[in-house]
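ok trying this again, last paste got cut off
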Amino acid sequence: MKKMIMFISVSAMLGATLTVHAVGNAAAGKNKATGCIPCHMLDGNSLFPDYPKLAGQHFDYLIKSMKGYKGGNRKNNEIMSPIAGEYLKNESDMDDLAAYFSTQKSNSCTGKPDIDPEKVKAGKAKAAASCTSICHGEDGNSQKSLYPKLAGQHQAYLINAMKAYKTGTRKDPHMSPMATFFVDESTMENLAAYFASQKSDTCQ
C-alpha cells in the first residue's frame, strides 16, 4: 500500500512537471567549462568519486542543479555554492554550460568490477520497491529531462546525494519525500552500487 501511494504521488508530480527550456550554445559552454575542470574535467567525465559526472546528463536537469546552487536550495556542497555565485552570472551562462555538458559522451561504458555484486543485487531490488524507475529509469538511464541519469555515476557521489536529501541540506519537491526510502547506510550503499554499476546510454 505504501508503495502504491508513493507511486500515485510521484506520478502526479511528474504529470505536473514541465520542461525548463532547451536552448544554449555548446561551443560557448565549452569555453566557460574551463572553470569546471578541477572537479568535473573538461568533458564532464569526473575522475573524482565525490564529484558527479556531467557528460551526457539531461540539459534541463543541469539547469535545475545550477539554479539550485545559485538559489540556495542545494547547500550540501561547500565548493559548488560559491562557484555558482562566481561563474553562473546569468541565464546564458547556465544555458551554455548545460548545452555543452549534455552533448558530451559518458565514459561509463562497462560494468565496474570493484563494486560488490551482492550490493548491486540488493540495490536493484530496492530500486524496484521504491518506484525509482518512474523518474530515473529501471537501469538509471532516465528519459525524463528534469530527472538525472544515474547510470554509471560515481558510487560515492550517489551516497552523498541521498544523505543530503535525508538530512535536508539538499532540497527538491520530488526527491525530498523519497528520502524516506533511504532508511539506513546499507540501503543507500546498495542503491548507489546498483546505479553506479549500470552502463550509461550516452556511452562513448
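PB: full thing came through this time. The domain at 26-102 is CATH 1.10.760.10 (Cytochrome Bc1 Complex; Chain D, domain 2).
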